Task: inverse folding
């Protein structure tokens, strides 16, 4: 059925003039001019019957947008916008199986496709620049990203799946400047080539967490990003791992940022890195020999490198005063802790069965419970502190910082005269 709407907001009147029962419409093509009121009407009377809607020749005219967000300024305003698919346009329309969008579409509003399940791929037109918050959340849709995209809002594709055997691709053009928090969280239906915009300016926490399956391609962090947010790439579904490229201007890597991703190439940490958070590279199948830690590091979080293969020498940078966990169960053989370190956290190096040599700097004050527990190969401890550090006698697992050490085979060296 083809219905022409001359004035925005006039669909209901036009349907009534034609004497049609809207609850019986299964296939609808609209031409002319429509706005948010027309979508409200469609949702209210056709949610359980409309299977196909064609908006290809429609003009979205003077659509009212409450709190229209402009990421360039960080401000939101109430305004009328053309070429904007309105808030909740097709939300929860359980019968819809095929949608054709207007060629002139520029923005997709919040919750527009929430929980919609389509049997045919959705073509996002070139010229589309903004996909706003929650737009495709919990939808079952196959689609491809247009090269014109600039903005992807918070939760935009969270938990999106496929309702067919089709493929949604995750190749983002270099025009994309903003990807909000949880934008692709747990959206497992994305497959194929992954490409992160080289001009990206903002990436939100959990943006690609648990996203994709059978993905290919590399993770190349754009030069405009100096902080990798919490769990940004956590457990992404790369088919056979990925190469990770970090530029030297990155200062902070957030908690669990790359955890669970198989990283194939040698890990090179940014030269200007200051904070490496908890679990940042846990479970990454890394083989790290003589890992080089940037000199400017002031914190290495617990479990930062847990469940990886780490061998050779680890030298803790001088800027770190609290040596936290993250090294337990690794195969390091030599540990050098600098003069600025005051504390070694409990269980930090427990179960490092190949650890043979430990150097503790002159200002060390406290060694936590279980810090070196079960390091059975330890044969030399050099402690440069003039005042013996306090030794922790309890932890969640061990009762002593050096539980399981064979002291008859381990030499303790202290400054001359002490």
Result:
């Amino acid at each position: 059925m083809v219905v022409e709407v001359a004035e925005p907001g006039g669909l209901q009147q036009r349907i009534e003039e034609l004497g049609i029962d809207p609850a019986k419409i299964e296939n609808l093509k609209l031409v002319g001019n429509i706005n948010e009121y027309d979508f409200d009407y469609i949702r209210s009377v056709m949610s359980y019957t409309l299977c196909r809607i064609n908006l290809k020749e429609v003009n979205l005219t003077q659509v009212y947008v409450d709190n229209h967000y402009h990421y360039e300024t960080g401000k939101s305003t109430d305004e009328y916008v053309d070429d904007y698919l309105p808030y909740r346009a097709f939300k929860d329309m359980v019968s819809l199986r095929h949608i054709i969008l207007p060629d002139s579409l520029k923005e997709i509003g919040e919750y527009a496709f929430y929980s919609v399940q389509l049997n045919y791929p959705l073509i996002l037109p070139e010229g589309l620049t903004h996909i706003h918050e929650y737009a495709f959340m919990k939808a079952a849709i196959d689609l491809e990203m247009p090269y014109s995209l600039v903005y992807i809002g918070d939760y935009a594709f969270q938990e999106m799946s496929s309702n067919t055997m089709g493929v949604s691709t995750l190749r983002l053009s270099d025009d994309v400047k903003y990807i909000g928090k949880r934008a692709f969280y747990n959206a497992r239906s994305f497959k194929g080539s992954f490409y992160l915009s080289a001009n990206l300016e903002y990436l939100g926490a959990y943006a690609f967490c648990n996203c994709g399956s059978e993905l290919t391609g590399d993770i190349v962090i754009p030069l405009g990003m100096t902080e990798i947010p919490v769990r940004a790439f956590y457990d992404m579904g790369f088919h056979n791992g990925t190469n990770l490229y970090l530029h030297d201007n990155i200062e902070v890597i957030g908690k669990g940022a790359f955890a669970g991703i198989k990283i194939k190439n040698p890990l090179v940490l940014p030269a200007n890195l200051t904070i490496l958070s908890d679990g940042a590279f846990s479970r990454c199948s890394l083989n790290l020999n003589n890992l080089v830690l940037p000199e400017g590091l002031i914190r290495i979080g617990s479990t930062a490198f847990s469940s990886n293969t780490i061998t050779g020498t680890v030298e803790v940078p001088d800027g770190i005063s609290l040596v936290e966990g993250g090294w337990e169960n690794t195969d390091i053989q030599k540990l050098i802790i600098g003069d600025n370190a005051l504390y070694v956290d409990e269980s930090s190096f427990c179960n490092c069965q190949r650890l043979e040599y430990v150097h503790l700097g002159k200002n060390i004050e406290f060694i936590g419970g279980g810090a070196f527990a079960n390091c059975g190969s330890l044969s030399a401890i050099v402690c440069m502190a003039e005042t013996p550090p306090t030794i922790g006698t309890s932890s969640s697992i061990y009762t002593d910082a050096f539980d399981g050490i064979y002291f008859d085979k381990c030499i303790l060296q202290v400054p001359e005269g002490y």
About this structure: The chain has two helices and 31 strands. Helices lie at 11-17, 36-46.
